[in-house]
Specification:
The radius of gyration is 16 Å and the shape is elongated. Helix 1 packs across helix 2 and helix 3 crosses helix 4. The chain has one domain. The mean pLDDT is 87. It has 75 residues and is mainly alpha-helical. The chain has 4 helices and no strands.
Length: 75
């Protein structure tokens, strides 16, 4: 990998991270009662209905379902 490729990759990653931060900020405004992990799930394509169905199925809160999902993505 040369230096130009490294610079392009860094710029691409920076644009992606800015887009994710904007999306999370927007979700924070539009979903006031959602926690951090729930907003992460919403940003990654989960719907509120899917999250609620999983929470009801397992007998836990929506935030706990999303926290487990985020932990699974990281491993």
């Amino acid at each position: 990998m040369n230096i130009n490729q490294s610079i392009r990759d860094a710029k691409s990653n920076l644009k992606y991270m800015k887009a994710v931060r904007r999306r999370l900020f927007w979700l924070k405004i539009t979903n006031l009662r959602a926690g951090f992990y729930e907003r992460l799930c919403l940003a990654n394509g989960y719907s509120k209905g899917n999250i609620k169905n999983l929470a009801n199925e397992y007998g836990v809160t929506c935030e706990e379902v999303c926290e487990e999902e985020v932990m699974a993505w990281q491993s």
